[in-house]
From TrEMBL:
Protein name, UniProt field: ArsR family transcriptional regulator
Gene3D superfamilies for this protein: Winged helix-like DNA-binding domain superfamily/Winged helix DNA-binding domain
Lineage: Bacteria, Bacillati, Actinomycetota, Actinomycetes, Mycobacteriales
A Pfam entry, by short name: HTH_20
GO MF assignments: DNA-binding transcription factor activity
């Protein structure tokens, strides 16, 4: 069963937040701050105007990614609003659910069973998942960029805390969290291959232009990155820089 949260409007709101670099920056700053922050403090750290920060915080709050609370015991006048955002859970603090244990057992067994390539079989399973389970995903023809936006939203709903990055040559979806991280680190050839297949299945379902796609597990110690090349048939593709 595909993971779904909220209404279409709510998912669109979450996607809009994640697609904004300034909002992602504000969210990152709040997540690492040991105390709640005011709009003025955030504006100073991010080098933004307070009006701009207020606008983006409203969107983050509406999407449920940031919470606001009045300042306790203000020195004078109206209390200021304080903003906070929960940090992603570290692997050692994640719930060791029955689902996670079952996933670990299955991944380990699949990785060692038979002579077939487990990564190939895992990718095929992920592709089938993307083609069959996301039945309410729009299927009108999409550019690679539009498809990447939709994939970013889907991965946000699944708990990957994604951020979409763009260059003239490619689109990157940086995954700052993985809900399956303990299992993925033990059996990346299975778990990460499933996610690669899922990406390719969703791209096919969206009727996106053919493109090269790679998923690099742990490109940094804490993030995985999906790379989607801009294909020449993509109307939004741009020529590489000289």
């Amino acid at each position: 069963m595909a993971i779904r949260k909220g209404t279409v409007a709510e998912r669109a709101s979450t996607h809009a937040v994640l697609a904004s670099g300034r909002r992602v920056r504000l969210l990152d700053v709040l997540r690492v701050s040991p105390t709640p922050m005011t709009i003025s403090e955030l504006a100073a750290v991010c080098d933004l105007h307070v009006t701009t920060v207020r606008f983006h915080l409203d969107a983050l709050t509406t999407a449920g990614l940031v919470s606001a609370e009045p300042e306790p015991n203000p020195a004078r006048g109206r209390p200021r609003q304080l903003y906070r955002a929960p940090a992603p859970l570290e692997p050692d603090h994640r719930a060791d659910s029955g689902y996670e244990r079952l996933a670990g057992v299955l991944a380990t067994h699949w990785a060692s069973a038979g002579d077939d390539d487990p990564a190939h079989r895992a990718e095929a399973a992920g592709r089938a998942w993307g083609l069959e389970d996301f039945t309410d995903t729009p299927v009108s023809p999409r550019s690679v960029e539009e498809a990447a936006n939709t994939i970013t939203t889907l991965f946000a709903e699944m708990g990957f805390d994604p951020a979409l990055e763009s260059t003239p040559e490619e689109l990157r979806i940086r995954l700052h969290a993985c809900p399956f991280e303990p299992v993925a680190r033990e059996s990346p050839n299975v778990v990460c291959a499933v996610h690669l297949g899922l990406l390719r299945g969703v791209l096919a379902r969206l009727h996106a232009p053919e493109t090269d796609i790679r998923l690099i597990p742990w490109e940094t110690p804490h993030t995985c990155v999906a790379h989607l090349a801009r294909h020449t048939s993509d109307p939004l593709a741009r020529a590489p820089r000289a």
